[in-house]
Amino acid sequence: MSAVRCDKITRIYAEGGGVRDFTCDIAKGEFFALLGPSGCGKTTTLRIIAGLERPDSGKLYFEDTDVTDWPPERRNAAMVFQSYALFPHMNVFENVAFGLRAQKEPKATIGPRVHEALELVQLDSLAKRRVTELSGGQQQRVALARALAVQPNIVLLDEPLSNLDAELRYATRKQLAELQDRLGFTAIYVTHDQEEAIELADRVAVLKDGKCHQIGSPSEILDSPATDFVESFLARQRSAT
Ligand SMILES: Nc1ncnc2c1ncn2[C@@H]1O[C@H](COP(=O)(O)OP(=O)(O)O)[C@@H](O)[C@H]1O
Ligand SMILES: [Mg+2]
Fold it and tell me: DSSP letter at 241?
């Protein structure tokens, strides 16, 4: 049984962009990457899986249940946005507690759950700090803690490291891989960075102009690219390894 199945998911905006006929099966506990250049439809696909966007056609299944029409809060999927989308007027604790309060978690368990999530990202000592007083890397980890606090089955990450400098990006990438391994959630990770996808993912879907060109393990897409586009997009990575 797959954690997430997209069956010919299509969403085309008035201007013509979007995603077309996207089909994939993502296993429980898998780290799955959506890779492709800017504008190829990665965020659109992720937002459809989160329930923030409705497909024009196609079906979405979580563990064989059709969730296409389910609202986001029913899906037990948490999203980490590229911009972090933290609440600037709240401190770290309140930001992480937000999802728990929204799902009406009993008051007595909110505190422990927030601290547990903050410990996962090594930020518990900064719980009372305003998020505007944190570095970019720390803000990114608060956003991750906020997602993890609700103990989601699925974590959706939209270019979560792209606002960090190269060194921090690399370190945070490793931490994320360790966390996913330890906690066992299914991760769907959007990136335009082929190195990131290849390093992190069990399998990668390569997209261009709303179309999926190939789904495969990092070695499959590197060694046997299905199209000229996949080959050229990964060429830089292949020459670097
Ligand atoms: N809300 C929207 N309204 C109109 N066009 C959109 C909207 N969101 C995305 N698009 C268009 O759909 C295409 C895919 O966008 P997106 O999924 O954000 O790509 P990516 O995340 O891969 O950069 C782009 O051409 C983009 O301009
Ligand atoms: Mg995007």
Answer: -
